[in-house]
Write a structure and sequence with these properties.
Length: about 425
Amino acid sequence: MKIGIRREDKNIWERRVPLTPEHVKKIIGAGVEVVVQPSGIRALKEAAYRDAGAQIDEDLSSCRVVFAVKEIPVELFRKNGAYVYFAHVIKGQPHNMPMLKKLLELECTLIDYEKVTDDSGRRLVFFGRHAGLAGMMDSLWALGRRLESEGFQTPFSLLKATHEYADLDEVKLAVRDVGQKIRLEDLPDLYNPMVFGFAGYGNVSQGAQEIFDLLPHKEISPEQLAKRSYEPDARHLYKVVFKEEHMAKPKDAAKQFELQEYYDQPELYQANFAQYVPHLTALINCIYWSPKYPRLVTKELLRAIWSGATPPRLKILGDISCDVEGALECTLKSTEPDDPVFVYKVQDDSILSGVEGDGPVVLAVDNLPCELPVESSWDFGNALIGFVPEIARADYFAKFEDLALPAPIKRAVIAHRGKLAPNYEYLYAKLDG
């Protein structure tokens, strides 16, 4: 049994690993050999992997299974190989269909972390919390820069982008310092109250709230926000968490919102989020979205907000989920950590890098966890390690029905022996398209 850990090369920011040296040591102790490709940018050094007992080698061809974080270039696939990574194919993403087609041609097995779930459909292996942590910090940084551009120095001006800090502890210390200043200094009257909305309540949202909760704040309900039935306080921020029933409502006004029905039959529902957006300073988008669901923020809504008589309150759209033209229709592109934000110019439907312009600032970094590479890799590996020996042991020449993998992993098999797995046969239409 031998597995490989591929170096990441999607961009210079991708320094994460699926398994740390500490995880590799335990895997080797369970009887699995590990080969690690050398890398010039990986956050964890080759010497640590070597000390853990791994081989350092460019050639992974002897490995039964290759683990990575992001997509693997098609020219690196080998016939009958098995690959475990975030494939970004389950929505039929057009840019990755050639990759999926090549995997099928070579009769490879693809296991996608995104679909490793328990019996209830909850994801088990993810970077979501760290996307939330980094995305919230970057959103606070962007807010400080936007307010500066409007002539206001606030405690948020003291913050840097996440990747400029040494680690998560340093990030949290900086946020706590800002929180102490907010307790001592009134925020600008023009922007009081400052309200931060969190769309979603899962792992991504929990990570984002973990950072926000270091600041002095009061939590209010979506209903209080819409009715303005709370007393503004210039030395506190306000937090509101939105669930599905705040994002959509039944088209039949006589019906009540039913969560499972919304998941199964979203065509019976319509958007209901616009009533909250004008009251927010920042919206932090943490939801899973696909086109069958209503959008949270449309371009039309933004045009209406910016055509009003008073300056909009909305400053920041922290699109942590980062679906291009998705839940936030104005996310026209994804960004990278060294140029993380753009202004969506509502009047001419264009974007401008930076924080100045007639429209909201959009944060749309599509690999936020790479800004906290060590901590995110450690947590990810903790979730993955229990499955690795059985993934390494499996016979990938067996038929799909005979493929001996733990149930959560087998649910994540997208392709096997030249065919799409039964749960993913809908992707044939995307391949042909």
